[in-house]
Amino acid sequence: MNFKPGDKVRFLNTKGGGTVTKIINSFMVAVAIEDGFEIPTLTSELVIIEAPANANDRLFLRQEEKIAPVAPQEPEYTEPERISPIQHKAGSESGFPSGVYLAYVPQDQQWIMTGMLDIFLVNHTGYDILYSFFLKSDSGKFSGIDYGSLPKGSKLALESIIREDINLWASGVVQLLFHQDEGEKVLMPVSVTFHRKGASFYKEGSFKEFGLLGQQKSIIYTICELDRMPSTVEHRLNEKEGIDSLPESARKFNPGSAIDKYSIAPREAEVDLHISALRDKYDNLTPHEILTIQIGTFERLLESAVANNYTKVVFIHGVGNGSLKKAIVDQVREYGGLEFRNASFAKYGNGAIELVLHQNI
Q1: Cβ burial, residue 63 (10 Å; 0-12/13-18/19+)
Q2: Strand, helix or coil at 245?
Q3: Residue 326, C-beta contacts closer than 8 angstroms, at least 6 positions apart
C-alpha cells in the first residue's frame, strides 16, 4: 500500500490513528497522533481510512501536518563495496574469522554516540551469497527489508538510519545461501535470528575498531562463521545414522537447542567463555575481537536459556582484567527478570557469574 503525506490512517495492532506527515523510507512513515507527537510506524501496521481527494484538499491540513511533497524515487542498484585483499584473508590470517557479519557503523567516527548509523551486511568468506533480510516489529511481525546477492569479500550498505530509529533495526532474521564455482563441500543454508539491545548503541564501550571494516569503530553481530557451518554431506550422513542433523560445532545457530549443549542439571547450565573454549584458533585475534566473540556467545546462549525455560546459568569469564565480567554485567542489566551474583567461590574462585532467571522459576 502506498502512503502519502496527509493520509488519514488507523493502527492495526493498537487503538487510535492519525495523519501521515512524512515518508521516512520505503517501509516506514511518521504518523502525527492527536496529542501532536509524531510516531515512526511500519507501513505494514497501518491502514488508510481517508486519503485527500485532490491536491487542493492538502491546503487545509493542520499546520503541523504540512510538509513538502516527496517526489517518488526509482530504486538504485548499489554495487557492493569490496573489502580490501588484506582485510579479506580468510580466518585467522586477517585476525577475524571467515564468516558473515552485520555491522553498525557511525558515519562520523569522531562522534560515535550521536548521528547517523550505516548498517552493513559483510561477506567475509570465499563464497558468493544470496541473502534475505527481515526486521521484527514490537508486535512480533516480520517485514522483508532487502534481498539480493553479495559477492565474496564484499560488504553492502543495507540502510542509513538516525540514532533514534535503532530499536527498529536491532532485531530480525538473516537468511543466507552460499555459492562457490568449485569446492570440497556445499554448505547448508543459514537462517539466524539476530537481536541487539538498543541501549548498547548509547554506550561508548560497545563500539570497537575492527580490521574487517578498515579500523572503523562499530558494533559487529556475527551471523555465522564458516568453520562452524555444516555441509550437505554431514547433514545427509547424520540423517542416515538417525542423529542430530546439526553437528555439535554448529548448534549455536539453532536457537532452540543452543543452551542444551551446556546443560549440567535439569534447567541449569554452565558456559565457559574463555576464548580457548570457543575457538580452536585464536592466536591472531585482537583483544577487541576476542571480547566481541565472547559477548556474542554470551548473548546467544542467554537468549536460548530464557527461551528454553532454564532457571540458572553460570558463565565462566575468568579473572583477567575484568573487561569481560563488566561487559556481561552491563548486558544483564538490560534484561528484566534476571538476578546476577558471583558464582560459588569454592568452585570457580572469582572467575564466574551466576544468573538466576526468575521469569522461568
Answers
A1: exposed
A2: coil
A3: none
